[in-house]
Amino acid sequence: MNPPLPKAPINWIAIFALVFLPIVALITIPLYAYYHDFSVSAWLSLFFLLALSSMSITAGYHRLWAHRAYEAALPLKILLMLGGTFAVQNSILFWASGHRTHHRHVDDIDQDPYSINRGFWYAHLGWMLRDYPAAEPNFKNAPDLLNDKLVMFQHKYYVPLVILVHVAILGVIGWATGDLWGVVLLGGLLRLIISHHVTFFINSLCHMWGKRPYTDENTARDNFWLAIATWGEGYHNYHHIFQYDYRNGVKWWQYDPTKWLIWSCSKIGLAKNLRRIPSFNIKKAELAMKFKYAEQDLAIYGHDVNSDMLAMKQRVAQEYDAFTHTLNDWAKLKEQEIQAKKASVAEKIHQMDHQLKVEFQLVEQRLGQHRESLDILMRNVKKSELAN
Q1: Closest listed residue to residue 250, CA positions, set 264, 230, 234
Q2: What span, in angstroms and rounded, lies between the C-alpha atoms of 346 and 334?
Q3: Sign of the CA dihedral 329, 334, 336, 337?
Q4: Which residue, of 111, 165, 244, 297, has the greatest Cβ tally within 10 A?
């Protein structure tokens, strides 16, 4: 049983934004719809402004500033900063620093700002309603952000910027469409509430509901339906083991519009140096978890880990060791190239790059074969158990 939460002062600003405003929305939106109805433009403003604010959090606050998963040109950074301000989730500095703390101390009930081990309510909303010690700002983990002029400008003038972007965006759209109050209620108030809870789902439901195909060292889950709700952030198990990848959905079929946005920006010169985890590392993590789940299944079905599984483990270990050796040789040659810059070394680099690419593809193929063999092995074990 977890120890009780320490007494902490109420955060009245959070109470206003996260409790009072939803109550206002529950009253005013149905009344306005009853007496005036909403225009098509107001409904469209809800959708497009929700996309702006939510994806400014996922692509900006989260993947750009919290994890440095890619680099953005100044125009894109300004747009993401303004969109993130419009989402009203505190400053980039506060948000990103707290998120880095979450990753470092994930699930720790005393140090993770929104640990799911404190329960759904705490992880989703409760941690913000009081000034708990775990969520106290500590910017020692964000020296890069402290040196970022745009980030610090937003942090210094956060409240005036929140007011300015809301007045500017909602005012212009409302004036242009002739439905100011409809846009304010749908594109402003309702959009804000939805945007908040979409982000909060990542802290709560994404640590409770779904699968863990890459690691079981923490509570983070992958969930396709949550990926739809959270603009691609629902592949949270992957994210917690490979947090510096600009993608969350790494499979071609996985829904990750934030990844597509960042990739598209890179094609028009607004983003660069998109960081990707090598597919070998991803497949190795998947296979390791398959072995772990297989061992658990064998224990349930009353079997010991048999020689077939041990042999597969040994083959994977040998291949990984050989591949690591090749990587080390490649890294040494790269270092020689930097230091010596000799033509003969450069030629070796070129040869090693080609050799590494070929070997990488072969190892990936063998990992795929091992996964298939493991799946067949487990299906046969379960069938034999059912037959008995």
Answers
A1: 234
A2: 9
A3: positive
A4: 165
Q: Per residue in 212-254, pLDDT tens?
A: 999 999 999 999 999 999 999 999 999 999 999 999 999 999 9
Cα distances (Å, whole numbers) of residue 381 to 293, 298, 306, 312, 314: 13, 8, 11, 16, 20
- Render 63-111 in DSSP notation, one character per residue: IIIIT--SEE-HHHHHHHHHHHHHHTS--HHHHHHHHHHHHHTTT-TTT
Cα 115 to Cα 203: distance, rounded to the nearest angstrom: 8
Amino acid at 351: Q
Where do we find the tokens 């591949």?
A: 323
Token digits for 208?
A: 């409770």
At 106-118, the pLDDT tens digits run 999 999 999 999 9
Name the one residue in this structure whose structure tokens are 């690691």: 215
Angle at CA of residue 327, ends 323 and 330, nearest 5°: 140
Which of 127, 65, 131, 55 lies closest to 95, judged by CA? 65
Please give the structure tokens belonging to residue 363: 């190892």
Q: Which long-range CB contacts under 8 A does 289-292 form with residues at least 24 apart?
A: 289/212, 289/213, 289/214, 289/215, 289/216, 290/371, 290/374, 290/375, 291/374, 292/216
Of 227, 238, 322, 346, the closest CA to residue 282 belongs to 238
CA angle, corner 277, sides to 276 and 278, nearest 5? Answer: 110
> Residue 130, SS3?
strand
Which pLDDT value is given to residue 369? 67
For 195-211, how does the pLDDT look when each residue is reduced to its tens digit (9 = 90+)? Answer: 999 999 999 999 999 99
- What the block records as the tokens of 17 is 């934004």
Q: Please tell me the pTM assigned to this model.
A: 0.82
Alpha carbon distances (Å) from 280 to 325, 364, 365: 14, 6, 10
Q: Write out pLDDT tens, residues 301-351.
A: 555 555 666 665 666 566 556 656 655 665 665 565 555 455 555 556 566
- Nearest Cα neighbor of 308 from 376, 377, 363, 382 is 377
Residue 41's identity, in one-letter code, is S
